[in-house]
Amino acid sequence: MPHSQHPIELLRFNTCGSVDDGKSTLIGRLLYDSKSIMEDQMEALERSADITGGGQINLANLTDGLRAEREQGITIDVAYRYFATPRRKFIVADTPGHVQYTRNMVTGASTANLSIVLVDARQGVIEQSRRHTYIASLLRIPHLVIAVNKMDLVDWSEDRFREIREEFESFLPLLDIKDVKFIPMSALNGDNVVEPSSRTPWYAGPTLLGHLESVHIASDWNLHGFRLPVQWVNRPNNPRDPKLHDFRGVSGQIAGGVVKAGQKIVILPSGHRSTVKEIWTYDGPLQEAFCPQSVTLVLEHDIDISRGDMLIGSENLPGMNADLRARVCWMGQRPLQCGKKYLLKHTTQTVQAVVTCLGNRISMDNFAADPAATELAMNDIGEIRFRAAKPLIFDGYANNRMTGAFILIEQGSHHTLAAGMLLPPTELVKAEYEDFTI
Questions:
Q1: I need a labelling partner for 98 at 20 to 30 A (CA). Which of 7, 119, 185, 364 fits?
Q2: Residue 219 falls inside a structural domain
Q3: pTM (two decimals)
Q4: CA–CA distance from 259 to each of 244, 263, 312 (Å)?
């Protein structure tokens, strides 16, 4: 395949920060200056200009689609927008800034490669700045941009920019975020968003779009330790096609590692072993595939496999246990209750689970854990222990965001109550299935 025909990389990112820091305006500016707005969208923006004040086109309306959002000038729901440049495709999630919508921010950031935390240059670092930076760390988002916005309102002061950067740098080492970029900008006027600004001669870094186009994301996926949660067993059973008449494959999205034809694998929880005979995709057969591709594997042996099982490699073994520890962001209207049963969705299976213990609640003031906490209220973050109705096959979220994530669901209403990140399995847990006799 010619180089020009190679698929363009996709970058998922989200914007977050406090209320009125300019998140929606920033996304609107990115879309507007990168010429990613349709003509009818532009006409609708121009028609709404007199409603939003000053007769100026309100770029925030490109993402703030709810009527209440436009009337109040705030973001309530998560809005997704798609755009592309010659170098990369983008999916951007505009997430709310209000404390009561932290759960929406977690939803929008959960699949992101990069998170943009906006800071109003006048206000500096506030609790929401710290909260959203902590959540980005908790969700193991690999890349972080601190966008110091509204620099035009502080006369493009380099000293003010440095003050904000130094305050972030005082607590960033506590959060284990390795790739952080600080960019001074004005989303309203477009400075350092798509084009470099002449107003910041003291800043030699990239524009925001330049950084989004060039940040290295190829190594963001976990390519160590093969994982394939089984979504379904593929049996086309087409009598008119001899190749499909007896075809039996295992389908799913690779959640970690690389798989090759001829590779030996283990099926969990049964512990049966087999060898990968063929790898199929919609476009045809492959000799190897990797995370996050969706594939169908044909195995050498006819083994009883069903949805919820997991195919793994023989290296970097996952945990398998029903008693688990996790950090959660609580999203329910009513506080988390120890002893209550919930539904737990993990990879391709849903099981019952009961919360057995609340370990702590995290303070957003200093990121310290309070072990004396007795409940998690809406938007609180803390550590819990729970028991699932059957063992989960999992990795620590820090090692694999796909096999280490789960959600808790309320039985009956089916409302999502928590987004969870599993803590790493112990070696004792891993040993439970290493000695299977096959």
A1: 185
A2: no
A3: 0.81
A4: 23, 7, 9
Domain boundary among 277, 312, 347: 312
Query: Does 300 lie in the same domain as 395?
Result: no
Q: Is residue 222 part of a domain?
A: no
Parent domain of 234: 227-312
Assess whether 15 and 135 both reside in one domain: yes
Q: From the CA atom positions of the chain, what is the Rg in Å? A: 24
Separation of alpha carbons 377 and 360, rounded Å: 12
Q: Is the peptide bond before 269 cis (omega within 30 degrees of 0)?
A: yes
Q: Cβ contacts of residue 141 below 8 Å, gap of 6+?
A: 109, 112, 113, 114, 115, 177
Number of domain units in the chain: 3
- pLDDT tens across the length of the chain (438 residues): 344 445 678 899 988 877 677 777 888 888 877 777 655 566 666 665 544 455 556 666 665 543 344 444 444 456 778 888 888 999 888 776 555 556 666 777 778 899 999 999 999 998 888 888 888 888 889 899 999 999 999 999 999 999 999 999 999 988 878 899 999 999 888 899 999 999 999 999 999 999 999 998 877 777 788 999 999 998 776 556 566 656 789 999 999 999 999 999 999 999 999 999 999 998 889 999 998 899 999 999 888 999 999 999 987 889 999 999 999 989 888 999 899 999 999 999 999 999 999 999 988 777 888 888 888 998 889 999 999 999 999 999 988 989 999 999 999 899 989 999 999 886 544 445 555 533
- Give me the sign of the Cα torsion angle 412, 415, 416, 418: negative
